[in-house]
TrEMBL record:
Keyword terms, alphabetized: NAD, Oxidoreductase
GO CC entries: cytosol
InterPro entries for this protein: D-isomer_2-hydroxyacid_DH (IPR050223), D-isomer_2_OHA_DH_cat_dom (IPR006139), D-isomer_DH_CS (IPR029753), D-isomer_DH_CS1 (IPR029752), D-isomer_DH_NAD-bd (IPR006140), NAD(P)-bd_dom_sf (IPR036291)
Family: Belongs to the D-isomer specific 2-hydroxyacid dehydrogenase family.
D-isomer specific 2-hydroxyacid dehydrogenase catalytic domain ranges (all copies): 51-348
Occurrences of domain D-isomer specific 2-hydroxyacid dehydrogenase NAD-binding (ranges): 148-326
GO molecular function, one term: NAD binding
Protein name: Putative D-3-phosphoglycerate dehydrogenase
Gene3D superfamilies in the record: NAD(P)-binding Rossmann-like Domain
One Pfam family linked to the record: 2-Hacid_dh
Length: 355
């Protein structure tokens, strides 16, 4: 067991949880390295074969072709990745325990983006399959969306524009919140949480209170902030609460009815992390009771979110939902795709001395 896999006890102030450390703010690579299967190569070129299960940025695909024999979307051979692949790169595909059981040669999974909840991590750990994600590649873009959602909710933009499409809206009927000097509560102090905090501090003179179970006490030494002792402390003190943690068995439903009611009555909740961290039924209930100013959600349990499932939540016009678009910019897509390709190349090259 390496240092990144040691079980930790996480005191959230809500409950005491036992976690296996997943370095969402750290360098790629989350499991033991394999010692057995050779890397698949193409006989004609001698290049390693890598299967791209999803569409990546065109620049990254062209870059990958200079490094690997690439089998990607549109190639008939892609359907046989489970039987043949030693290395795959994914963006939105799920890799289940069943997939891994059917992939005897698989030794590495490259992941476009930081989130790895679509990969069965236990099955990978059991097999020694390396997971290579791309933390930090899209941090600025996600952080900018967090700020956009916060401002949209604070100024009741959805409510105003919805009414305006039906009839002229007198400005005297409009209201909103000022964000300057507000307290921004950040749960998860990784790359995105830090960037969000830098923007709010620099642009809004915001006070910062942050919690992270893993980062050292001297993290964010360049940013004036209060380092909370628990997530509970952040929940209770924040004017804007923004989440930047992975979805795990321990963080699922981390914000349920009790925690949501402990937020300030006019607080704003932002979730641009993962659907499932916030209990959506409880959020709907809390908002219907008039608690919280509103919510900005880029992540939902159902993705993309549908009106059929979220109609009741969306009846509150101070809820703004987007279909997980935090990294949906050309800059972020290119950076994440290139990082996924380069991570895989570096890792496979590192194995050459052992094979």
């Amino acid at each position: 067991m390496n240092d990144l896999q040691m079980p930790l006890v996480l005191k959230l102030g809500i409950s005491t949880l036992k976690l296996t450390l997943l370095p969402y703010a750290m360098a790629p690579g989350l499991t033991h390295s394999p010692e057995r299967s050779p890397v698949t190569t193409a006989p004609a070129t001698g290049k390693r074969t890598v299967y791209l299960l999803d569409t990546l940025h065109p620049d990254a695909v062209e870059h990958a072709k200079t490094l690997f024999n690439v089998i990607g979307p549109g190639d008939k051979e892609l359907n046989r990745w489970r039987e043949k692949a030693s290395a795959i790169v994914i963006r939105s595909s799920h890799v289940t325990a069943q997939d891994i059981a059917r992939a005897p040669n698989l030794i590495a999974i490259g992941k476009h983006g930081v989130g790895i909840d679509k990969i069965d991590q236990k099955a990978c750990a059991k097999r020694g399959i390396k997971i290579l994600n791309t933390p930090g590649a899209n941090a600025r873009d996600v952080a900018e969306l967090v700020v956009a959602l916060t401002m949209t909710v604070a100024r009741s933009i959805r409510s105003i524009t919805t009414r305006q499409m039906a009839a002229p809206v007198p400005k005297e009927t409009c209201t909103g919140l000022t964000l300057q000097n507000k307290t921004i509560g950040v749960i998860g102090m990784g790359n995105i949480g830090r960037t969000v905090s830098e923007i709010f501090h620099g642009g809004f003179d915001a006070k910062l209170i942050a919690y992270d179970a893993f980062l050292p006490e001297d993290a964010w030494s360049h940013l004036p902030h209060t380092r909370a002792k628990s997530a509970q402390e952040v929940i209770e003190k924040a004017d804007v609460l923004t989440l930047h943690i992975p979805l795990t068995e321990e963080t699922r439903n981390m914000l349920s009815y009790k925690e949501l009611k402990q937020m300030k009555p006019d607080a704003i909740l932002i979730n641009a992390a993962r659907g499932g961290i916030v209990n959506e039924d409880d959020l709907t209930r809390v908002l219907s009771e008039g608690h919280l100013w509103g919510a900005g959600l880029d992540c939902h349990e159902q993705e993309p979110p549908s009106a059929e499932k979220y109609r009741k939540l969306w009846e509150n016009l101070n809820v703004v939902s987007t279909p997980h678009i935090g990294a949906a910019t050309n800059t972020a897509q290119r950076a994440s795709s290139m990082a996924a390709v380069n991570n895989m190349h570096r890792y496979l090259c590192s194995l050459e001395g052992r094979q």
